[in-house]
Design brief:
190 residues, four-stranded parallel sheet, three-stranded antiparallel sheet, 7 helices, 16% strand
């Protein structure tokens, strides 16, 4: 049985309140790429804590990181930081709607807890029906399921996880990109 509460982590391992040790394959929902309590990361955090964190304005560290990302990611022309993935995906959807003048979105995969996405899931309680009607799910590795949506709705953005637990088959991602652009929508990998 999976643990409900964790008390600590070290490297790739976590311990629950009963002292049971587990390999953490989720790693903080995936941002923990170096393991828990990695000395260089912990030391940098301690150093920054003495200066303050979560400022209301950007810091030089954000600028330096943005420049590094632009340098090392060929398609990154600009960088904007967010608090979490839900905020980032919501910003991307809002931008796509503004640019295209369209309200509908096609989704594949998980994209957070904001109404625009969660309304398309079984956890939609409290999301207005009018909002729920704007998000349309398509199946991974099934280009026909996306094509059906794009033919029926004026889609602002197609947002998807490029890979989750299965790999793309038969150039699926290239086909999604081409079909998305053919229908005048923006394409977003998360």
């Amino acid at each position: 049985m999976a643990p409900l509460f964790l008390t600590r982590g070290q490297g790739a391992y976590v311990w629950d309140v009963d002292g049971n040790k587990y390999v953490d394959f989720i790693n903080g929902l995936l941002p923990i790429i170096l393991g828990y309590r990695y000395p260089a990361v912990d030391n940098a955090i301690k150093k920054q804590l003495k200066k303050g964190i979560t400022f209301s304005l950007s810091s030089p560290l954000e600028y330096e990181l943005a420049q590094m990302l632009i340098k090392h990611i060929p398609c990154a022309e600009m960088v904007r930081f967010g608090k979490n993935g839900s905020d980032v995906t919501s910003g991307a959807i809002r931008l796509a709607r503004a640019v295209t003048g369209r309200d509908h979105v096609a989704v594949c995969g998980y994209h957070g807890w904001h109404d625009w996405y969660i309304g398309s899931t079984t956890r939609h309680l409290g999301v207005p029906a009018s909002t729920r009607k704007l998000t349309h799910k398509f199946e991974y590795n099934n280009i026909g399921s996306l094509e059906k949506i794009l033919k029926k709705q004026k889609i602002s953005a197609v947002i998807m996880e490029p890979m989750n637990y299965i790999e793309p088959e038969k150039n699926f991602l290239r086909k999604v990109k081409a079909l998305t652009h053919k229908h005048g929508a923006l394409f977003d990998f998360r």
